[in-house]
Amino acid sequence: MSTTSQENPAVFFPERMKRVEIVAPRQAAYYVIKDLAEFGHVELDDINSGTNSINKRYTETYMECEDADRSLRYIESHLKSANKLPLSPTLFQFRGNLERFNQMNRQEVFTSIHTFDNQLHEKVNIYQQLKNQHHERTMRLRALEFFRPIIEEEASAREQIRVDSSTIELGILSSSNMILSVTGFCPSDQIHRLITTACRATRHNVAYQTGTAQDQEDVIPYTFFVSSSDMLTLLLKICESFGPDVFDFPSDPQKLDQIREELQAEIAQMDGLYEQTAQINKSFLDSIADQFWDWRLYVAREKQIWMAMDYGDFSRDESSVIYTGWTPSRFSSELPLICSRATEESGSPNEVRLTLNSAESIKDLTPPTYIQTNNFSYSFQMLNNAYGIPDYDELNGGAFYAMYPFIFAIMFGDMGHAIFYLLITLAIFVMEPIKRRQGRVESMWETVFKFKWLLFFASICSFYCGFIYDDCFGLPIYFFKSRWIKNSTTIGNLNVWDRDGYKVYPFGIDPEWMNKDNELIFLNSFKMKLSIVMGMTQMVFGMILQLINHIHRRDIVHFTLCWIPEILYLIPFFGYMVVLILKKWLTDFPADKEHIFTDLTKSDGVNIIQVIINMVLSPKKLDADLKLYNNQFAIQTVITIIFVISIPLLLFGKPIYDCVKEHNNPDFSVLEIFVMNLIHVIEFCLSALSHLASYLRLWALSLAHSQLSHVLWDELFQLELNQKSTPVAVILTFVSWAGFACMTVAILLGMEAFSALLHGIRLMWVEFSSKFYSGMGTQFHPLSLKKAVKPLGIPKV
Questions:
Q1: CA dist., res. 232 & res. 236, Å (int)
Q2: Measuring CA to CA, which residue among 559, 557, 629 is closest to residue 589?
Q3: Phi and psi dihedrals of 43, rounded to 5?
Q4: What is the pLDDT of residues 272-292, one digit of tens each?
Q5: Domains of the chain as residue ranges with CATH
Q6: With contact defined as beta carbons under 8 Å apart, do 759 and 347 qualify?
Q7: Phi/psi of residue 563, each to 5°?
Q8: Going by C-beta distance under 8 Å and a sequence separation of 6 or more, which residues neighbour residue 546?
Q9: Pair 701, 413: CB distance under 8 Å
């Protein structure tokens, strides 16, 4: 059924829900559930779950559906093994054939399924029996062909002895006719254990001979000779424990010839019967294949319908059943039409009655969370839902996961490596319309296509950050003219570089910093400060989203007593660090010299960490070396006072309000309120520092990625460039470049990308989402045909 609505899907908040109550006559219940499943936007409450399962009325019918489904799974396995399974219809085709499914009779369908299932079981059993008999005779013939040369060689030896022996020796020889034998096949890795066991069991009164494996089979033929029937019985049991193919042949060559001829005749006869039976089974499977998917989809639909029919309340009225649930408000206008159609289809004299209530009017029930996604938003919403489903009345964290690609890019910033992922993304974009034009898309490809936008933006952002770092496979690129000029003079063995006046490199890092002795110190300082700025910005944004939650809930108490003190604690103190970083970046500090050296190990300017420490430990001490702007120490004094005042506001504001509000409640506990609030305050205050420090992983992973790129370039790729053109040097160059390519893919494109992905998810889940997001909601699970056929692997298109 197509749905239309004047409202648009919600993005920033879960969709508004309505409470649904449907009172249906018993004879109309099936049609109500069927039409709701076709509608696909109503979640029904199962009031008969758990201890109330005794109230279920349609369990027997559901078990019939389950039995039919089991039979179809058995049929499907044999269709697959015979390559007879037809192409499954798409979800679109299934929805287009609903009228034909509605006309099918359940009992007739189930009878046909069970009939074919029983016939298939019988045919498979006959085929398996023939196969086992054919295998048994084949192995018997192979064992005979192994055993007969041994007997012929023994008979020849006996004849020679008979010619050369005396009368007494002939008597002894004649007694050897009583020697008994057992022949069989044993797995090659067990043959030594079999021989050892046989020798110990017979106390070494046994002779044996083994062959070699044939026809790529991992079994070895063997023959044991003993002189006692008791030993033969014992050997038979031992050999059967090592393999089922164990045979007892006579020692007379004429009888062996007769057995071989009989076996060859039986095998030849069985080959024809075997092929004939296989052909009959294939024809039988062809007759099933034509209607298999109709049965499979019909049974899946019926299972869902009869299971959901037991969700209702049968106790209020003997002639009716009451179903309750939830539906998004924008789809609720179509429910009256569905109920009218169910009444008409059932032919019931009583109408199906519908009642709708807004979720806000039902205070004791929590509606499920429904956020509709599309091909673009699916991947971002999935990352958020992996942490937790949004509450019904809170902001959807998934709407802000567009920040995730940039967080990932700060750690994976490299223009060269980003291009590889960008090419992969473009290949996915090109492949998607090709796959869709083929008429069906497998579930694996569907998932890949849903994540293409996440990969695309991660690649673009990684390229952008690599442009800022001026990093391409660990090398700088001179997009613009450097603002440092190499001086012709040196101091000791150090090169001197002069700054080109007050000109600033137009964008990103000046490439001349590459391969200087103080390169790592400079980039460490830059990326560490950048991580602090990005982390504080994201956490403050999370606090702003918390404010939006309070406004949405009209929660003035939490806004006044919780949010404002938290902001006064977080922003003035930790946010001030970001202000100092930005101010220091924008300040041109005077240098002792007009040039820099390659061994520079001390940065110019104010030590920001020392400024923050002195704000708390020595607020009245005015150190001129820590001055960054005018009136700095007066402003820092105000910031420190605000920071200190915010802590008692957090500790006592909300508990005092709760004590005043709940003083008449007999279950009220002052100690419990203060203790719970103390836990929350300690958690928030400590997390403000720990979460800010956690953002330093942006610096750490970015630095690790850059240094690994340098190492691979210097130690593998560039190492062989200066070698002489000798055959050995050419081979070493090829090996070196191949190693560079393999390690780049395995370490930088694989391991480093995966590490950045996991750390980025951690920052989004904990450091960002904890500021505004609880994620304690329940997912909206509507009754739908799509859900019923999803386990069958039915593609959408």
A1: 6
A2: 629
A3: -100, 125
A4: 887 888 888 888 888 888 888
A5: 18-118+289-361 (no CATH), 136-273 (3.30.70.260), 378-771 (no CATH)
A6: no
A7: -65, -45
A8: 563, 771, 772
A9: no
Structure tokens at 196: 């050892």
What are the start-end ranges of the H helices in 312-442? 335-346, 378-387, 404-411, 415-437
Q: Look up residue 545 and give its two tokens.
A: 């989203």
Q: Could you tell me the strand order of the sheet in which 207-210 lies? A: 207-210, 219-226, 180-187, 246-247
Q: Which residue has the tokens 């590889």?
A: 420
CB atoms inside a 10 Å sphere around CB 668: 13
Using alpha carbons, select from 534, 424, 409 the residue that is nearest to residue 471: 409
> 């062809």: which residue's tokens?
286
d(CA 363, CA 752) in angstroms, rounded, equals: 49
* Both structure tokens of 468: 């800022």
Cα separation, 155 vs 251, in Å, equals 9
Residue 99 has pLDDT above 80, yes or no: no
User: HSE-up of 576 (CA within 13 Å, CB side)?
Assistant: 24
How far apart are alpha carbons 137 and 347 in whole angstroms? 65
Q: In whole angstroms, give the CA distance from residue 689 to residue 573.
A: 10
Dig out the tokens for 366 from the structure: 């929590």
Which residues make Cβ contacts (< 8 Å) with residue 414, sequence separation at least 6? 462, 466, 469, 471, 472, 473, 474, 705, 706, 709, 748
CB 701 within 8 A of CB 411: yes
* N-term to C-term CA, the chain: 16
User: Rounded to two decimals, what is the model's pTM?
Assistant: 0.78
Q: What is the structure's pLDDT at 390?
A: 92
Which tokens belong to 676?
A: 């719970």
Q: Which two tokens stand for residue 694?
A: 């956690």
Distance, in Å, from the CA atom of 417 to the CA atom of 748, rounded to the nearest integer, reads 8
Closest C-alpha among 601, 605, 609 to residue 589: 605
367 exposure class (CB count in 10 Å sphere: 0-12, 13-18, 19+): buried
Gyration radius of the chain's alpha carbons: 40
Residue with tokens 């002792």: 592
Cβ atoms of 709 and 414 closer than 8 Å: yes
Kindly report, residue by residue over 30-69, the tens digit of the pLDDT.
999 999 998 989 999 988 887 677 778 888 999 999 999 9
230: left (phi over 0), alpha (psi -120 to 50) or beta: alpha
d(C-alpha 501, C-alpha 147), whole Å: 99
